[in-house]
Amino acid sequence: MLLLGGCWSSSPPAPPEPVHNTALPGPLEQEPIPQHTVWRGTYTCRQGLTALQLTIDVNANGDANAIFDFGPHAGNPDIPRGSYRMLGTVHESGSKLQVRLAPDKWINQPENYMMVGINADSDRERRHLTGWITDEGCAGVEVRRVQ
Description:
By secondary structure, the protein is mostly beta strands.
C-alpha cells in the first residue's frame, strides 16, 4: 500500500544529508545462455502423453541445434521411439529463456509420425521449459533441465 502525505511549511525544508555508501550492490549478474543442455519431460499430441528428451546446443549468437527424442511414457507405453534434428533460436527475455525450435530432418522416424516444432519459455531459474507444440493436433510441452 502506498500512502502519500504532505504538509505546508512557511520555511523551505533542510537539504537532505548526503549518503556515503560505497557498498551499493551492482546490477544483478545473469547466468549466460547455456551452450549445451539436456531437458526431460513430456508433451501431448494425437498419440497422447509422450516422453521427451530435448538436447539443445546454442551458439554465441543464439542460433540453436537440437535433437528431439521421444518415446513411451509410463501412462502411455505403446508409443514408439523416434528422434529428429531441429533448428531455431534460444534468446534471453529478462531472466527467462525463449526457445523456438522448428523440425529439420529425421534421425529415426516411426511409421505414421511427423515432426513438430516447439515454442517454450523457461522459469527464472532456467530449470524448466513450458510451452506448446506447434502442430494444431498437439498441446503442451513441459520439460526440466537435467544437464
